[in-house]
Model the fold of this input.
Amino acid sequence: MRQFSCPYLKGEVELTEEREKHIATTHPDLLPEYLPQVEETLADPDQIRRSTRMEEALLFSKRFEAIKGGKHIVVVVIIEQARYWIITAYLARRLTGGILAWPKT
Done:
């Protein structure tokens, strides 16, 4: 299991082996190559959105110009009491869905 610092949540976010394998299988364009950028997305996001599908999920996003001509990494974090864990992560051309909870100023 990996853990990433997340100042917004004031804690560590877990990435279990099972979830890492899931992301690498369903989004091979993201992992394993861009794992450092996943960590950077949690540490210094451009914005955070609340999921409209899952009440307990936050979508952290950050744009990286160097990834495939400019893509956002979106990391979906589940909040369960005092535990934070990544359920999935993916690349996106543009951000859609969710409700803006925090913009970087």
About this structure: The longest helix spans residues 17-26.
